[in-house]
Amino acid sequence: MHAQHEISILMVDDEPANLLALEGILEPLGQKLVRAQSGMEALRHLLDTDFAVILLDVRMPGMSGIEAAALIRSRPRSRSTPIIFLTGEEKSQDAMFEGYSAGAVDYLMKPVVPAVLRSKVEVFTELAQTRLRLQQQVREREQAAEELSRLNTMLAQRNGDLAAANLELDSFCATVAHDLRSPLSQIIGFTQLLEMSIAGKVGKDEQQRLSLIRSIGLQMNDMVTDFLDFARLGSTPLVTETVDMRQMVQAIAAELPEGTGSKEAEWTVGALPPAQCDKRMVRQVWVNLLSNALKYSRDSQPVRIGVQGEWQGDELVYRVSDNGVGFDQTQAPRLFAAFSRLHEEAQFEGIGIGLSSVKRIVQKHGGRVWAESEVGQGATFFFSLPITPQS
């Protein structure tokens, strides 16, 4: 329900009795009734008040109603205010023409019929209400547009600041990862030399400890490499080409190292439509998803991995399914957060950036990632790529 605005009605007549009669007729409308006993007094009211309608006596001493109407029409603020002339004289064609020429919208004879006058005035008050509501709506929309513009400007600034901060963070992470690789390589290299130089000179326990040091060093080196690749994703541009997804998945499955369970798993590779994407980056997506599927299914007998893709609207949707440990669906949002883990490291190795890398790569292409699962019922990971790649 619309709020009602206060509407003013100007009554102009040199006879107080006539003004009193008009008030009695119009009071049921519930609007503000303003009196004026001359044309000059009416003009003074019009200096600071807008009226829905003016009831103007034609014959008044000094300034006539016709002259007052002409002056009212000459002012921009009151130029469009409706004027109803009231006259006690018989209307002649000339008098009516003069009145309409001065800006009248109607001409009523005194004594007026109350119901007729009230009905005519009510039409103009309703029009004024409608106009005021529309003006208020325009103001509100302008204010909303200004607020939206301000928020958009602020959002653009925040996005710019965030992008700059992300680039700075990526650069820092890349530098840290790069600086870590050098001492790690030395540790691994010197450990190998030490193993070779003391072979047969120390006991089996010492040899196993050296082998463990080298193994941990290699594991740390792999982690730093993953971390470095993750950090570089933000600043690496896309190089798109047509990629045969089926061929890529089959090659990755064949190339996965011993110990992943790739050779023992039962693979079901369905239709995989080719996509326009960055081949190197999307290969990383598949490697992460397929490796994860094998890792979290390794206690299943047998391990079953399914890979499928299809067109859905304006995007290609690919999925990797397994029959592994699964996860609580309510925890799904945590899966793709950097360094977030749903399982203990003692159960499943890793530092928790594989799926985060998947998300960054897919979003960089303009796609999306999600997962569905139940605890103990395996999991299915989805990612989409747009038909038209992002530039």
Q: Can you tell me the CATH topology of the largest domain? A: Heat Shock Protein 90
Order of strands, widest sheet = 2-1-3-4-5
DSSP summary, beta strand count:
12
- What separation lies between the terminal Cα atoms? 49 Å
Reading the helices and strands in chain order gives EHEHEHEHEHHEHEEHEEHHEE
Provide the CATH top-level class of the largest domain. Answer: Alpha Beta
Shape type: rod-shaped
**Which class do the helix and strand fractions yield?**
alpha/beta
Low-confidence spans: pLDDT under 50, at least 5 residues? none
- Helix % is 40-55%
CATH homologous superfamily of the largest domain? Histidine kinase-like ATPase, C-terminal domain
The CATH architecture of the largest domain can be given as 2-Layer Sandwich
The average pLDDT score comes to 83
Could you give a short account of the major beta sheet?
A: 5 strands, parallel
Radius of gyration: 42 Å
* Tally of distinct domains: 3
- Approximately how much beta-strand content do the residues carry? 15-25%
Number of helices: 10
